[in-house]
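S2.1 Query sequence (Sodium/alanine transporter)
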Amino acid sequence: MLILLSGIYDIGYDGNGIVLAQNSLAAVVGDWGRIFISVALALFVFTSILYNYYLGENSLRFLFGEKIQTIIIYRIAVLVLIMWGAVVDLKDVLAFADITMTMLAFVNLIALAMLFKVVKRILNDYDAQRRAGVKTPVFDSSQFPDLDLDRNAWPANPTRQSTQDAEAAAKPVPEAR
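Output structure tokens follow.
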């Protein structure tokens, strides 16, 4: 909306979108708008790199354990890709990102398909609790001993009393006559 209202946009413009955003903000709020867009973009890029690096390293540690060689190779690959992304055309970077995100989506879809039976069992437990009149069903990991669950995250036999107390507190108290 800012680009349209600034008067900078021209039909048929075939330039860089970031430059267009910088010029549009500068036209509305002054030259500090260019700096603001640059700083905001730099922070977004930096935090995106950190987040994706974190996800990748955690996945490698899960798959291969604490093998330092694997982590070092991953770190070198990340640095090479960052440098590559800084010097090539944006279209090439976006094409590479599209390919890698597609591969990630396929891996996630395969994982979801593999988890279907587990999810179905847990959903059936949820539905059974709802049919039994439980307003806020609670996941009880002791009902699924065959699943390799983290017992700190998913405790066995969670108390339903705290849920019932919260529901009772939410009900309005009838006025005395």
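The chain has a mean pLDDT of 85. The radius of gyration is 26 Å.
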